[in-house]
Amino acid sequence: VNRSRGGLGRGNLSLTVRLVLGSGLALAACGIALLYFILQEETADQRTTLSEQLSEEMQFALPAMSGPAVVGDYSMIEQMVKARARQPVIAKFAWTDNSGHAVAALGPEIRTAAPRWFINRLHLPLLEQSQAVVVGGEKYGTVFLRLNPAASINKLWRGLWLRFGTLLLGTVLSLGVTLVVLRSGVRPLRALAASAHRFGQGDYAVRISLEGPPETAQCIQAFNSMAVNIESLLASLGRSEEKNRLLAMQVEQSSDAIFSHDRGGVVTSWNRGAARLYGYSAAEAIGRPLHELDLWHDRATHGENHVPVRDFNCCGEFAIGITGWKEPGRKDPPTFMDFYGDFRKSTGQTVVGSRPAIESLRPYLNTNTIGWGMEVPDVFRAAQFIKELNEFERAGNFPNLIIICLPNDHTSGTKAGKPTPAAHVADNDLAFGQIVEAISHSRFWKGTCIFAIEDDPQDGWDHVSAYRTTAYVVSPYTKRKQVVRTQYNQPGILRTIELILGLPPMSQYDAAATPNRGKWVSRIADSHFIVEDNDACILIPDSDPELVYAATAFGVSVNNSQYEVIAGFTVNLPKAPELRFSS
Amino acid sequence: MKKWIATAPLVVALLLLPVLGTQGWSQSQPLSFGVIVWRSPILTAQFWNPILRYVSERSEVPLHLKVAPTGPEHTALVRRGELHFLYSNHNFIKENEESGYRVFARPKEDAGTGEIVVLKDSPIRSLADLEGKEVAFPHTAAFFGYHLPMDALLRKGIQVKPHFAGNQEGAMGQLKAGRVVAAGVNAEVMRAFAQRENVAYRVVWSSDKYLSLALSSLPSVPPETVKAVREAFLKMADDPEGAKVLASSAALLKQAAPLRFIASKDSDFDNMRRFYRTTLVKVELQ
Q1: pTM for the complete prediction?
Q2: Which residues of B touch A137 (CB under 8 A)?
Q3: Which residue in A48, A107, A288, A345 is deepest, having the highest Cβ count within 10 Å?
Q4: How high is the ipTM of this complex?
Q5: Chain CA centroid to CA A544, Å
Q6: Could you tell me how far CA B98 lies from the centroid of its own chain?
Q7: What is the distance in angstroms between the Cα of A81 and the nearest Cα belonging to chain B?
Q8: What is the per-residue pLDDT across B136-182, written as a single tens digit (0 to 9) for each?
Q9: B50 touches chain A (CB under 8 A)
């Protein structure tokens, strides 16, 4: 019961009161309507009865009066008139002879028991009739008869009260029975409500015995079943909460930096490891956007705000390569040596370019370089990038994200006329080293991090797995000579890039991926890389000796003490016995 | 010429007005016409009113039916001469002769008889069987129904318990209902009653024949009035309209034949006068 509303609003009435009131009102309405219609019908019957009585009385009076009227026996007429007038229904009975002499008698005085409004409501008229006494064609006076409706009114009034009393008795009995039945039916409901209240207060063990009508018993049964389920669920929830609490405690006490953020990048949790690693307390970090925290800079020494992604440059990735001779109509597509020779000698005989494989990439694609295509050396790609880097230097604007495709470590296998796999890999390593060198000497170096991963590394089992690969992270803040043994994957690299750039995850894979952070992050921010040629030669029979070049594998040697191998794994090239390289 | 003929009845009527005016009461006030109480007043009125209406129209003498409640009262009216015209035989009673009623017509019928009748399956076979029994009579003034039968019983020394029913059919009704073992009746009325009411009866005793009823008038009634009334009665049966009235009245009583009035005189009823002068029955007059 909602007692807060106050008053006697409908919301305060119990089911029993509502039902009793509703039933009572319905019965009363039906009873009144019934009484009304019965009264109407009986009134009409009484009118008809009175009319018939008048007619019958007249039919009786006329022959009865005829004899005395014919002989002029006034004493007899008077006796008859008085006798007839004694009937309760007659108000006046009279006979008037032809000369106007009247013999009349009034009927018994009957008082109407009904009130005036009831009498007025009935509209019962005073019925009267005059009729001549005619015998043998001669008139022997006139008989006058008036009926008294009082008896009919009293009969209707008594009938009304009788029916009203019966109806009232029936209503009381009906409501009484309803009340008794309801009380027996509501009692279990009240017990149900009390039990539900107790259940709501935490008494999950409360149960109700099945009683009452089937509908109520079904409710009780449903409640008991619900209580059992909820009790079980709560117990399970308690166990889960305990586990979560333990997990939260483990997370909190973990030495690793663990934090979470919502889809908008706002930090939602921050453990001690994160506080220790990034220098923000939980109170400082939680609720702030992730990009404001500048996790990849020491905020004490590098307090500059993170520059959000403003531009993106794609060099060959998701691009369709365009190669050929510059000279129109020249047959035989240019080979690796043709492209390499043209690159080294700048003859301008070949054409290298690309077009986007994805149309939306067109604004960001460098079309003067190429992605896939073993026939184009990676050093060409590196040179094209370095040219562009120089342009960025002059413009003072460097894209936030650059993707460079250096595909030649895929090698061409043992195809005739193609560089050996070692030469391809050496080409790839050299190109990568040239790019790193160029960036590390650029004005953008302090704000740049280079992630290098192998594409299609699956071929080649080592003693662990064919699915692992190498990844290289090069930046001013990357610890040198550091091998990170934490398992990362490609989505982890993506996640790391997203975190650096303040980008939201693209899918659940990168959202759930482990970013590259940890002990390899350094505060040393002043190191440069210098590339060295390797000694892998491109040995292609009948090739131009001038075109043979040697490249030093990436990161093998440095020009000063600053050189370090910062991350990665040893490259194990396939050593299949069937391969025969002359290198 | 035609105009004169058309206005002639009006002129004659205007000339006759003073003559009729000398009759005075015959025009302005109806003359009473008393009828012997043989039947109930209502039936009597139903029978006679159409006839009197016809006679009044034809004779131009307004007649008003005067029905006495009982026979003795009728007799009393006759004795006191309170009825201008009379269709009765009570005027022949010795005690009523002083009223001086003069016969001017009578129904064309055979002379009537008085009878003592019982129901057909009654064990009564003779007058002697009636000794000490209840016998119904119309009333103490009924000639055929009481005077003749009772005179016969008295002359034979048979004592019965008389029960007066008020009129002829009243006595017959009591016989039919079994309240009495026998009834003194007018034979003609009895036959009509039995036919109408489907009563099977047997005659135990029958009187000599007497003319039953006569149309008479008081001596004070002007002769012209009597004549006009007499003519209307006598011509009634021959007039289609009058015959229709008589037939209708006869049908009311289920009479075998409608009434037909013929001329008559006082001497036609001498035997009745003689009876009353010698009867052992005490005629009670009120």
Answers
A1: 0.47
A2: 49-50, 53
A3: A107
A4: 0.70
A5: 69
A6: 19
A7: 18
A8: 999 887 888 999 999 999 999 999 999 999 888 899 999 999 999 99
A9: yes
